Description:
This protein has 15 helices and twelve strands. It is an alpha/beta fold. The strands form two sheets. An eight-stranded parallel β-barrel has the order 1-2-3-4-7-8-9-12, surrounded by five helices. The protein has a four-stranded antiparallel beta sheet with strand order 5-6-11-10. The structure holds D-mannose.
Amino acid sequence: MERTWRWFGKKDKITLAMLRQIGVEGIVTALHDVPLGEIWTREKIHDLKTYIESYGMRWSVVESLPVVESIKYAGPDRDEQIERYKVSLRNLSAEGIHTICYNFMPVLDWARTDLLHSNPNGSSNLYFNYAEFAYFDIYILQREGAREEWAKFRFPEGYGEGRDVLAEADAMAQNMTPEKDHQLVETIVIKTQGFVSGNFKEGDKEPIEKFRKFLDLYKGIDKAQLRANMKYFLEAIMPTCEECGMNMCVHPDDPPIEILGLPRIVRTEEDIQWMLDAVPNKHNGLTFCAGSLSAGAYNNVVDMARKFASRTHFVHLRSCHIFPNGDFTEASHLGGRADLIELARVFEQENPELPMRVDHGMTMLGDEDKGYNAGYSFLGRMFALGQVQGILATVDRELGIKYQQPGFFD
Ligand code: DNO
């Protein structure tokens, strides 16, 4: 697979010169300064692409060309937004970029409750605690119906036995302070969302008010309706994708659970099968995010990779550990539920050209003071990339695939 890295543009503290030294061949990025819903112009795309190429790498994948909410909930300007999306696709293709990662999650792009959860070795990882999330939902967001939903919440079989998430959230409420509430809002709404070109930004004055307005847009939209809206979007853009050789690859919901009363439709094997069958065109594909999928106890990630490899256009290598109580954290890239070694075999066999990036890494050895985006450390991700490069070198030898690491004499 092509060794790529998610880079956040010219303002990223991690520079392209650094990435070139660690075996990165391709860059995964977006026009982060273009406001949501605006057309990506050819000039801006060209400028960034040329900059990347000046460092001896290429712009391999766009992550993300965001799908605005009104396409997801079918707002009045949906068709106009889809037309704009198509223009951006044509402009990207004209500049030689042919892989687009996007998501179809309503409101929230991805969710964690702790961005610096300690590992036994002193480093830290991202973490999701169900009770903290329930507390946010019931006590901070004060979402109508949240208490009743959490009262009915059950973990997948084998996890969280005897755990009462609602009781834990109520107990937390006894000890929370405005500072702790603020911290949780920063984590769930700002720090995880602010840098992914989504709905929330660093410096948003009233994020909770804004959040509630977004939730209101989805009143009455259930799973079937969201699926219909996704199908509508994909059918509308497929002719453009065919015309300009564009591969669309949806990112699975992260975590792959239903949250905040919102429908989520890219969580499980059945969901992905539905999405691929609904629009049976090879340009309608998947970002195989092993990390997101492995946070769902019902997902057998290796089986899913075998099943969906031929419609996978982009791979995220990461792995999760689910604790017996149901909470999850991000595991080592050599451990956890995802089995990255076997995934590397599956995808190398399918297509050694497939772009792959290591996803989130540990925060380690001083990463924490550098102001990196949550989950996107430098040393932690570099460590993970080193591990994955080792896995790929071994698998390539097994499969007889020749690979020359760029930037070395040998
Ligand atoms: C988080 C990322 C997501 C992902 C988008 C794709 O770390 O995996 O923000 O890029 O959901 O649209």
